[in-house]
Amino acid sequence: MAVLTEALLLSVMVLAVVLILRPGGDAAHAEAEPDRPEAAAARAVDRLEGVGRVIDGDTLDVGGIRVRLHGIDAFERNQMCDAPHGPWACGAAATSALKARAEGRALVCEVLDTDRYGRKVSRCERDGVDVAEALVASGLALAYRRYSPDYVDEETAARSAALGAWNGSFDRPEQWRSRSRTAR
């Protein structure tokens, strides 16, 4: 039902954009004019559909296009976290969790932005389930508050339940990346 509601909402939004951006003057001519390839390509960038190939806990390729999951910061591939029983590979766990949800699966992604590395910052779903939300809810990624408040509630719930990395202590992924760069 949620997918149908989102599809209907997306259709209404696309219709509104088309009506707003439709050229004035000769509307009959505008409707009869064939769609230019560059216009079709611009629309296609707003939505990606394809099979997922996971790079790490918050980066994947969707249909051959590099995507950075919107609103989250997952633990880095080689990052270790501390738990009561000792260090554990939280970064590898984040990558594995995203693989379980997205690797080789059909994904639909809403492109929201492009980051400085050229990746499409996107909200991606598999069968109507937001894969980024699931990672934060399991304690294997953090809400990336600097860019979005979207997953703060899921992070708060994971922290309260001591799930994933919240069962111990850790460096925030951006701190870990910064320290790793400095150590080189």
Q: What descriptive keywords fit this protein?
A:
globular, five-stranded mixed beta barrel, 184 residues, 40% helix, two-stranded antiparallel sheet, 10 strands, alpha+beta
Strand content: 25-35%
Instruction: Label the overall shape.
Output: globular
The string of secondary-structure elements, in order, is HHHEEEEEEHEEEHEHH
Major pleated sheet? 5 strands, mixed, barrel
Can you walk through the features of this model?
This protein is an alpha+beta fold. The protein has a five-stranded mixed barrel. Strands 4-10 form a two-stranded antiparallel ribbon. The model is unreliable at 7-44 (pLDDT under 50). The chain is globular and about 40 Å long. It has helices spanning 2-21, 27-32, 37-44, 90-102, 131-137, 152-160, 173-183; strands at residues 47-56, 59-62, 65-69, 72-74, 81-83, 86-88, 106-114, 120-126, 129-130, 141-143. The N and C termini lie far apart (50 Å). It contains seven helices and ten strands. Helix 5 runs parallel beside helix 6 (152-160).
Offer a quick outline of the entry:
With 184 residues, the protein is α+β, with helices and mostly antiparallel strands. It contains seven helices and ten strands. The strands form three sheets. It has a five-stranded mixed beta barrel. A two-stranded antiparallel ribbon has the order 4-10.
Write the layout of secondary structure elements.
Layout: H1 2-21, H2 27-32, H3 37-44, E1 47-56, E2 59-62, E3 65-69, E4 72-74, E5 81-83, E6 86-88, H4 90-102, E7 106-114, E8 120-126, E9 129-130, H5 131-137, E10 141-143, H6 152-160, H7 173-183
Parallel strand pairs: 3-8
Antiparallel strand pairs: 1-2, 1-7, 2-3, 4-10, 5-6, 7-8, 8-9
Helix pairs in contact: 5-6
